[in-house]
Design goal:
Blueprint (H helix, E strand, L loop, with lengths): L55 H14 L5 E4 H4 L13 E5 L4 E7 L7 H15 L3 H9 E6 L4 H6 L4 E2 L7 E2 L13 H13 L3 E8 L2 E2 L6 E2 L1 E4 L16 H17 L7 E3 L6 E3 L5 H7 L15 E7 L12 H21 L20 E4 L2 E4 L3
Parallel strand pairs: 3-4, 3-7, 7-13, 10-11, 12-14
Antiparallel strand pairs: 1-2, 2-4, 5-6, 8-9, 10-13, 14-15
Cofactor: Zn(2+)
Keywords: Carboxypeptidase, Glycoprotein, Hydrolase, Protease, Secreted, Signal, Virulence
Family: Belongs to the peptidase M14 family.
Length: about 375
């Protein structure tokens, strides 16, 4: 596994090549509003056998296997090999990245920043397999359009403990939510220092973060929600319209509208917009992808103020509350892979950039009552 850090152009390339390959993972149904998912999406209820979930040793082995079997130059490496000043977890585990593709723009994909949210790891390993071995026009387009920087397990210590956080090894045993640790006066955990520096080396064009949420039902009819679409600086909220002249406020909506439309073709996926409850949308500045959009300059490592748009996906169920549901595992991972694939192809072909951002409001959601910020909730009438 060798050093995969590269320098990339930040100028977005106009791509007109249409993706013609059919999705290999599932057959689409007729387009339209999302089909009700409760009839054919296996229940996420019930105890989860965490022994079947990819752990850190599995991750290392699978990355090595993907590198060895790749047809298209997949490179798996540690941050020590990439040359970051800090490059291990709090307990000293190596932090891994995989790169693939030769395109002029970098794309950042990350999963399992919360250790009890495992399917980000498995979904990104599945995407890496396709990028590394699939010769179809669709995956070829992606490799030629972008260079992917994929972090399947951002939080290996928390993953091994099956907890959301990492635990500081400075004698305090303080638990740190790594997705609240990129911010002024933060960076308490070494994982944050390590991956932040790598982000400044990559300067991605955009980023996608794969998460889990608890069990969720649709407002009104009570149907199970299987996937929520989110932006951690709320579109139309107190922060995002003022970033990059409002450009990210538009593009992040377009990205999620595209995912909503494309995944509506699959009969077992039921989608809504992410919120933290009671119509309160998230608008935090300390989250990793929030800091990316804000162009955070920590420790002088981002003096040029690079920033990039970013979104996240939330698959329902997690391990710590016993709601993952082994029967739902395959379809939970598949919906993540489909969401990633549809979004990436849409970005590469320019379809995403043609979406109507106002249709963000058509994605099912509770009436917005407020915004959860780093310092508390502010009303929607701010």
């Amino acid at each position: 596994m060798t050093n995969g850090s590269k320098s990339h152009s930040r100028n977005r390339r106009s791509i007109t090549l249409a993706a013609t390959a059919a999705l290999a993972l599932a057959a689409p149904l007729a387009a339209g509003s999302p089909a009700l998912a409760d009839a054919n999406f296996p229940s996420p209820n019930g105890n989860t056998n965490t022994a079947s979930i990819v752990d850190y040793a599995d991750l290392v082995a699978q990355l090595e296997q993907l590198e060895n079997t790749s047809r298209f130059g997949l490179d798996a490496f540690t941050l020590a090999e990439a040359g970051t000043a800090v490059n291990t977890s709090e307990t000293g585990r190596d932090l891994y990245v995989a790169t693939v593709g030769s395109g002029p723009e970098a794309v950042w994909l990350q999963g399992r920043i919360h250790g009890n949210e495992p399917y980000g790891t498995e979904s990104l390993l599945a995407v890496l397999k396709e990028l590394g071995t699939n010769g179809s026009p669709e995956w070829k387009l992606l490799r030629e359009s972008y260079t992917f920087h994929v972090i399947p397990m951002y939080n290996p210590d928390g993953s091994e403990l099956n907890i959301r956080h990492t635990v500081l090894q400075d004698g305090t045993a303080k638990r740190i939510d790594l997705n609240r640790d990129w911010g002024v006066g933060k960076f308490e955990a070494v994982e944050s220092e390590a991956y932040y520096e790598y982000w400044t080396m990559v300067d991605p064009a955009f980023a996608i973060d794969v998460h889990h949420q608890g069990l969720k039902t649709e407002r009104g009819d009570g149907d199970e929600v299987t996937l929520s679409l989110g932006v951690s600086l709320a579109p139309g909220g107190p922060t995002l319209p003022g970033v990059q002249g409002g450009a990210y406020d538009v593009l992040t909506r377009q990205m999620q509208v595209h995912v909503y439309d494309e995944l509506s073709k699959y009969g077992y996926i039921n989608i809504d917009r992410y919120d933290v409850g009671r119509g309160i949308e998230i608008d935090i500045k300390g989250g990793v992808v929030s800091a990316m959009m804000l162009g955070l300059n920590h420790d002088g490592l981002n003096p040029e103020g690079h920033s990039n748009p970013a979104i996240f996906f939330e698959t329902s169920g997690n391990t710590s509350d016993g709601s993952l549901g082994q029967k739902a595992r395959g379809k939970s991972i598949k919906q993540n892979v489909l969401a990633l694939q549809e979004l990436l192809v849409g970005m590469a072909t320019g379809e995403v950039q043609q979406e109507d951002p106002a249709r963000w409001d058509e994605i099912p959601h509770a009436p917005v009552t407020g915004y959860q910020t780093d310092t508390g909730v502010i009303p929607a009438s701010f």
